[in-house]
Amino acid sequence: VKVKIPFGNKFLDAIFSVPEKKSTYGVILTHGAGGDMNFPHLVSLAAYLASHGVLCLRFTCKGLNIAYRTKAFKAVVEYLKLSDDYKLSGVFLAGRSMGSRAAASVIRQLSQDGEEDFIQGLVCLSYPLHRPKLQSKLRDEDLLFIRCPVLFVSGSADEMCEKQLLEGVASKMKAPKKIHWIDKANHGMAVKGRTTDDVMEEINAQVFSWLKENIELEQK
Description:
alpha/beta
């Protein structure tokens, strides 16, 4: 279902992937610095989640300014929270690369405003922990602030997220967290000798099983 989400004086393009049965939880998903909501990995994950009973709303927000991207993500969260069509108990924020930074930033802001009840967790696909070859400056401040469960899915050969550095940040995080490493994958999740579909299957299954664990914990 295509929708236009109001954002300031314009609209963000977005698509709902709707499961057959009514979903109580949803995932909001966005893209990295390049591309848009039709980036193949996002389309694949959204379809997988919907076919397993989880509503997925993915949206496009162009722009390389992280504050702007965060504002847009926040507008989408508000939109879904107030939606009459999909009455959800909670939502997981997810993004690829820069999109996951924006998601983390939104969660931090909402928790500072005491409004994070709706947010169930964060999914970071290829979180860009540092610029290539610039390991001294880590983008970890939002992660260290977050309290809700976090899943990282990263390539072990990601040039923007060195394995030891992410593990170091994770060990300092107060949130319950899990890292799933895609062996030999780079920042774009490409692995020599594996098809994109094969890699996506691994990612999608990981994301879904983690969501399920956290939804079950929530409902206990």
